[in-house]
Amino acid sequence: MRWTVGVVVALAATAPPASGSQVFATLDRNGQLQVSKAPFVGAKAFDPHRLYMPTARKPMATGPGPSPAAPTAMPKAAAHWNPLIQQVAVEYGVDARLVHAIVRVESAYNHQARSHAGALGLMQVIPATGKRFGAENLLDPLQNLRAGTAYLVWLERRFGGDLELVLAAYNAGEGAVLRHGTRIPPYLETRRYVEKVTGLYYGRSRR
User: Fold this and answer.
1) Is 36 left (phi over 0), alpha (psi -120 to 50) or beta?
2) Annotated active-site positions, please?
3) CA-to-CA distance for 196 and 201, rounded, in angstroms?
4) Element at 202 (helix H, strand E)
5) Residue range 58-100, pLDDT digits in tens
6) Helix 96-107 and helix 141-158: axis angle, to 10°?
7) Residue 172 has what pLDDT?
8) H helix or E strand, kind and range, residue 143
């Protein structure tokens, strides 16, 4: 989540004067700032009596190849979900453009999408995977994005930052990638999926 000095100063101005107290805050799925004295899922802690400028995590490695495409004007659906995608991308240290590319291919930004295989929501997360990464309701956009992005980060670590293997595993499962010698499985759907997502991410999509 991107914190601005203005937001932090405003919070500090309204906080009680007690020294050393902490405030926990995040954006909800509607882009509204939520603040609490108690910790809660996805919130960042800071001392309201001091300016807090967190250091962004290093974005996910993309391996050799072209640089990601520069941001362009977003379609309406993408723009609608962009604040939430940006928040989650910063939380997990993932390039928001990559999350956008995955969401576009997986669900076309339909937060109520359901696949024949049971995958749900914006990032088409399987319930077992959602549970694995702490999601209780995958049709909740924020929980869905967090679970899907947490899985991406786990896959990035598992496959050494190789983006194509990460995407192949996201589509077909990490087991399929491992069974095929840590290579993209020879499934037409998976190969097309990797091509589509990387094409969007690197700006090579065929429209």
Assistant:
1) beta
2) 106
3) 9
4) helix 188-202
5) 445 445 555 565 445 568 999 999 999 999 999 999 999 999 9
6) 110
7) 96
8) helix 141-158
